[in-house]
Recover the amino acids of this structure.
């Protein structure tokens, strides 16, 4: 009796030790698990990395790695390799993987300049089932597919993409691109757009385009119109950060054109006209109008300017025909080498 009790006690002591040994052995022999595959998330690796993970995977995650590899190949400009992987995909995929596949097919179509195919492929995708990163790629793909001929839906894609962008730099680039797309739309076509009543952001962009078309030739009116537009559309992204192209149009003042370069020949047969052209430009810039010809009365320069003296108002023929005074011509003369210096001051005053 005593011996059996002792044996049972010893056996009971060894059971926890044996169990612990079995658990430890199972942990040490288990293969390391591959990182999780998220086809709906952002791309963080290269195509080489994803292809390596695909080759090492033996479960359902292999298709996920293959989809990530296709996306990376498209972004890296390796369209033939991407097509090869697209054709090698299995038929049995999950719903999430099928949505990603449709998006990748549209991205591939854009990469091979098949805009029509890309738009048709995007129409088969359910936007509500996409993640934020996938929605961003969806709108970028649609914008790229319709960039040649922007439409109302292109503008909607720009607007939908704006809140999905994280950095201020990306948001400003999207605003600039939206304005550039707007500027490519003819004014008559933009005036005939019919939009929904709740599309306030889109309405603001179209009104801003109208302000530009009405006041583009008058900078003061353009600045006033844009300022009024910012008050009426405070929620529009462009209200806080105006497009770079619009700012450039608003800031083209006379001060921006006060420096004008003259390219004149210093040697050769035409060098004789350089001094006269430069002097005439300086007189025009300073507002000096000479009443008499300069002392130099070379016959050759006067003869070269004879086409200008053929104007109907030939009462000031000596002044018009002088090569030293090309700016002082008052009659409508054809464009000649001597008439070009009088043009720079005029655009500066108009702007």
């Amino acid at each position: 009796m005593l011996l059996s009790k002792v044996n049972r006690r010893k056996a009971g002591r060894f059971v926890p030790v044996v169990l612990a040994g079995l658990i430890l052995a199972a942990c040490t022999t288990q293969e390391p698990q591959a990182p999780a595959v998220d086809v709906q998330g952002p791309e963080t690796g290269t195509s080489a990395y994803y292809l390596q993970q695909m080759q090492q995977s033996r479960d359902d995650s292999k298709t996920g790695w293959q989809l990530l590899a296709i996306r990376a190949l498209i972004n890296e400009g390796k369209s033939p390799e991407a097509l090869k992987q697209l054709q090698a995909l299995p038929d049995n995929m999950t719903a999430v993987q099928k949505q990603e596949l449709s998006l990748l097919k549209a991205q591939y179509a854009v990469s091979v300049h098949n805009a029509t195919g890309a738009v048709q492929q995007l129409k088969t995708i359910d936007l509500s089932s996409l993640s934020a990163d996938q929605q961003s790629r969806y709108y970028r793909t649609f914008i790229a597919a319709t960039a040649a001929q922007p439409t109302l839906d292109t503008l909607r894609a720009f607007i939908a993409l704006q809140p999905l962008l994280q950095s201020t730099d990306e948001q400003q680039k999207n605003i600039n691109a939206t304005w550039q797309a707007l500027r490519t739309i003819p004014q008559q076509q933009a005036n005939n757009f019919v939009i929904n009543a709740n599309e306030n952001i889109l309405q603001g962009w179209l009104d801003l385009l109208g302000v530009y078309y009405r006041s583009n030739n008058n900078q003061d009116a353009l600045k006033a119109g844009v300022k009024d537009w910012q008050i009426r559309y405070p929620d529009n992204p462009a209200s806080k950060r105006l497009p770079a192209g619009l700012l450039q149009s608003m800031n083209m003042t006379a001060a921006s054109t006060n420096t004008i370069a003259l390219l004149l020949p210093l040697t050769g047969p035409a060098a004789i006209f350089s001094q006269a052209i430069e002097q005439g430009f300086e007189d025009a810039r300073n507002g000096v109008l000479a009443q008499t010809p300069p002392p130099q009365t070379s016959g050759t320069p006067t003869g070269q300017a004879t086409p200008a003296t053929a104007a109907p108002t030939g009462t000031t023929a000596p002044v018009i025909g002088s090569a030293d005074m090309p700016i002082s011509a008052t009659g409508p003369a054809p464009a000649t080498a001597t008439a070009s210096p009088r043009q720079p001051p005029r655009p500066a005053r108009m702007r």
User: Anything to note?
Assistant: Confidence is low (pLDDT under 50) at residues 26-32, 253-257, 297-351. The two ends are 116 Å apart (CA to CA).
